[in-house]
Amino acid sequence: MSDVVLDVRDLRAWYGTEGDPVRAVDGVSFEIRSGETLGLVGESGCGKSTLGRTILGLLPEGAATAGEIRYRNRNLVTAPPKEVRALRGPELGLIFQEPMTRLDPLMTIENHFVETLKAHESDAKEKEMRRRSLDALGAMGIPPTRFKQYPHEFSGGMRQRIMIALALVLNPKVLVADEPTTALDVIVEGQILEILADLRRNFDTALLLITHNLGIVAEACDRVAVMYAGRIVEQGDARKVFAEPAHPYTRALLESIISLATTDLKYIPGAPPSLIDPPPACRFHPRCPSAMRVCSTKDPIEVSIAAGHVTECWLHGPEDEIPAGGEQPLEREEIAVAEEA
Amino acid sequence: MEAAARPVPRAVAKPTGEVLLEVTDLRTRFALRGSFAQRMRGRAAGSVKAVDGVSFSLRRGEVLGVVGESGSGKTTLGRTLLGLAPATDGSIKLEGQEITGLSEAAFRPLRKRLQIVFQDPHASLNPAMTIGESVGHPLRIHGIARDREQMRVRVVEALERVGLHPAEQYMSKYPTDLSGGQKQRAVIARAIILGPDILIADEPVSMLDMSVRAKILELMIDLKRELGLTYLYITHDLATAKFFCDRIAIMYLGKIVEIGPAAEIYDNPKHPYTVSLLRAIPEPDPTRTVARDLPRGEVPDAVTPPLGCSFHPRCARAFEVCGWESRDLRTLLEARWTRMPEPEYRAEREVIGSLDEMNVPSTSARIEPASGHTTAEVAEIIERLRIDAPDDPFWKGVAAIDTEGPAVSIRFHEGIEPRDVQEGPSRLQCHLYDEDALAAAQRDAAAR
């Protein structure tokens, strides 16, 4: 097995508000190996984008972090911001959701590359920069004849490819892609997924792919981490998690997808909770069809289901931690139809 | 999740066969403004054919899905049906009454019968109006409710019907107090409050979270049954369309390229574009992978669409008569250069003069050598291009290559504009299914 590139332990991130803080990431642990793609999924507002930004040190001012992000014997959480900034780009790359707004309309594609390369490698030679830029663009299917054009001369899909090429030209070890295909058409999305698949085969990039689309995870990811209300509730091999989801939330999320094979509409009752004041104990218990008494009184403990497959759910034990009578079904109020996300 | 699961039978209200809406050869064009200099000289900058000759009928109780990528014209089609974008040509008949070309005043009463739900529920609601005011607004515009009490009763009824229960609790709230799904319910309440016959739903669930989409779709199915609604469901998402629609129309660059019963479109797609759309969807099943042979490129610019069949530059099955042209040659050359290491690309690029001549759509293309280079060198690059990708459908379109003279000129077979052909229960525009086009292609191939 390849090396662990990024090791995240008990990571927390809060946003300050006028009242209590928003605990967007609340004790999250995972690792990514080189050449591996980890999919991060969950409903909107579960903290997945915040997690991606925390790793890159891109949280707004006023946000606080704790825990560990181990990268090359350094803890990025406690490292000076200057050091993290130097890593961003050549070591830790980022692809955003909206390619339209991330390129400078007044700069040619060539200048975007020159600026990126010069910022990180001040001694880069012009000829060498040109060669590397065209190689990166070529790998994304952008013709070299268009090197001197401006962003507005490209379609949405091409702009997203240019963004990926800009991230890859520095050859980062870790790449965080936040909803990279959400704004794109289905065929272009397929083309970008092919590119990402080639990426993990040909380079040793570790990719964290943040998406709400479980179809993309099934298509492009080796492992998957399911996030709910700031926590990772299940994590494991993508095929295994899809085939046998352990956490009721994962199962509900998988069932709620409308795919070509859908014959019944299913959904998750209720809405994801507020991250200022989430429900006590297991955060999913108010929406969970299998909730037990213990789920509303005691924090779930991470249990291992199989090699590399973990979940936080009392249904999987550990049994000796469940208080007497804790396995009784939880009695709850009916959730109204419109109480939804 | 048994508690939340509920099998919803498809097509609950059977289409009665009575045609509610008849659209014939509808066209909607938008004029381009052009540059200041062009306008000074009185030169037209051309137009975008957003909807380009669309025909279909909608029967009472039916759900017709209009599926396409961005730029396909599906949203403009919906807006044209509602009179929000003026039709340039063609006819829209609502129960026999022609509704194109009507003045705003004449159209307004028809809006009681034709309503729309837009994609973004947040942008659809006035942030300064309470939910109660927004939902009741159509009653005021159309002067239906006589007094406050009557209005309140109608609004409560509409809110309850869309599941915003108890209605009193939602009436005084503002859009920002509601979640995305709740806002879309309010928008739907406003759309049904006048008791319309037809609801045009333009991507009603695509801005919503996966886990909420099913609830809104289920609501729309319930409303259809309870209120006898007829839907035009505009979407880019073939999965929700499959679940929801009785018939599907696939749009590409302003045209319906295939239309037929939903089951036929999904089980037996015919147009190569429909086939590739269906193959491109990432399914949540890790044992299946998306096809690796997706169409190249993206939806082209609608200002200067490809000659012949608009899909031909991306189509793997295109042949002689599909409309091959100069721009296709440029695309092929650029694709070759994209795959090359930089020095090799430079060497080839230096031989060829300007590429811009190829940007003008034409059934012939001329490539001049750059100064200091010869026609023979250019011809050699074209030959390498052919050796590199001999199976590219492009070569079927080439009628002759002339390497004598000061430039290499390539002549393409004359393209044919696709026309509607009936194939089983589906109607489509594709030369693969048109016997006349196939025969013309055979003649072209023989003459080469």
Brief sketch in words of this structure:
By secondary structure, chain A is of the alpha/beta class.
Which helices and strands appear, and what pairs or packs with what?
The complex is a heterodimer of chains A (341) and B (448).
Chain A: E1 4-15, E2 22-33, E3 37-41, H1 48-55, E4 63-71, E5 74-75, H2 81-87, E6 92-95, H3 99-102, H4 109-120, H5 126-139, H6 156-168, E7 174-178, H7 186-202, E8 206-210, H8 214-220, E9 223-228, E10 231-237, H9 238-243, H10 248-256, E11 302-306, E12 309-312
Parallel strand pairs in A: 3-8, 3-9, 6-7, 7-8
Antiparallel strand pairs in A: 1-2, 1-4, 4-5, 9-10, 10-12, 11-12
Chain B: E1 19-31, H1 36-40, E2 47-59, E3 63-67, H2 74-81, E4 89-94, E5 97-98, H3 104-107, E6 114-117, H4 121-124, H5 131-141, H6 148-161, H7 167-171, H8 180-192, E7 198-202, H9 210-227, E8 230-235, H10 238-244, E9 247-252, E10 255-261, H11 262-267, H12 272-280, H13 326-339, H14 342-351, E11 364-367, H15 375-388, H16 394-397, E12 398-402, E13 408-412, E14 421-423, E15 426-428, H17 435-447
Report on the architecture of this protein:
The complex is a heterodimer of chains A (about 350) and B (about 450). In chain A, helix 4 (about 110-120) crosses helix 5 (about 125-140). The model of chain A has no long low-confidence stretch (mean pLDDT about 90). Chain A starts with a strand and ends in a 29-residue tail after the last strand. With about 350 residues, chain A is of the alpha/beta class. Chain A contains ten helices and twelve strands. Chain A has a domain at about 100-165. In chain A, the strands form two sheets. Chain A has an eight-stranded mixed β-sheet with strand order 6-7-8-3-9-10-12-11, sandwiched between helices. Chain B is an alpha/beta fold. Chain B has two domains: about 10-35 and about 45-280, P-loop containing nucleotide triphosphate hydrolases (Rossmann fold); about 325-410, no CATH class. Helix content of chain B is about 35%, strand content about 20%. The longest helix of chain B has 18 residues, at about 210-225. Chains A and B meet through helix 5, helix 6, helix 7, helix 8 and helix 9 of A and helix 8, helix 9, helix 10, helix 12 and helix 13 of B.
